[in-house]
Design brief:
The protein has 185 residues and is an alpha+beta fold. The chain has one domain: Methylamine Dehydrogenase, Chain H. Helix content is 18%, strand content 43%. The chain starts with a helix and ends with a strand.
């Protein structure tokens, strides 16, 4: 290859490397260990990655806490890249994971586990779009949390549910059945 052709190629590669080095394409990785506690403190979910995130997949473990004793209920590897964006744990030990750490439309927009670690429900961002009646593109532009939530999730303890908002449309996730429904605007 002649030097006249090589120079623009090298210059282009240096520009790409420079953009990455300046933070243009750099992704901030989560801490190697994160914990999420249930409202009463009866359960703790621990999300952990390998040192330096050598693998992009995290381990998750649910513990029950009683009388100062921490007992493991279940653990597994998650399909989320670098773990979930966020998590909620109910006082009964139900675990709700939302999004992936990297804020991109995901097949794991919502993942709900029973207190035994069995998957109860899984919804992709496309599923959220269908249930909410909001186009995926609008979910992204109205997102304030993760890649699709326009408000922070909140527990509806009296109904054993979590209230979610997608594209400014209210959704309710039943923690027992895993069913998600549109409940209002």
């Amino acid at each position: 290859m002649s030097s006249r052709l090589l120079a623009p190629l090298v210059s282009g590669l240096l520009a790409i490397a420079g953009a990455a080095a300046s933070g243009g394409d750099v992704k901030v990785l989560p801490p190697a260990k994160r914990e999420f506690q249930s409202p009463s403190g009866s359960h703790v979910l621990e999300v952990s990655g390998t040192a330096g995130w050598k693998s992009p997949y995290a381990q998750v473990e649910l513990f029950s806490l009683s009388g100062g004793t921490r007992r493991s209920l279940w653990s597994k590897e998650l399909p989320h890249r670098f773990g979930p964006g966020s998590a909620m744990v109910s006082d009964t030990g139900r675990v709700l994971l939302t999004d992936e750490w990297l804020k991109t439309p995901s097949p794991y927009a919502i993942l709900l586990f029973a207190e035994t670690g069995i998957e109860v429900a899984r919804y992709s961002m496309l599923d959220i779009s269908k249930v909410s009646g909001v186009p995926s593109s609008k979910l992204v532009t109205t997102a304030r949390f993760g890649s699709w939530m326009s408000a922070s999730p909140r527990a509806a303890v009296s109904r054993n549910a979590v209230i979610l908002e997608a594209g400014k449309v209210r959704l309710e996730l039943d923690l027992d059945s895993g069913r998600i429904t549109r409940t209002g605007i």
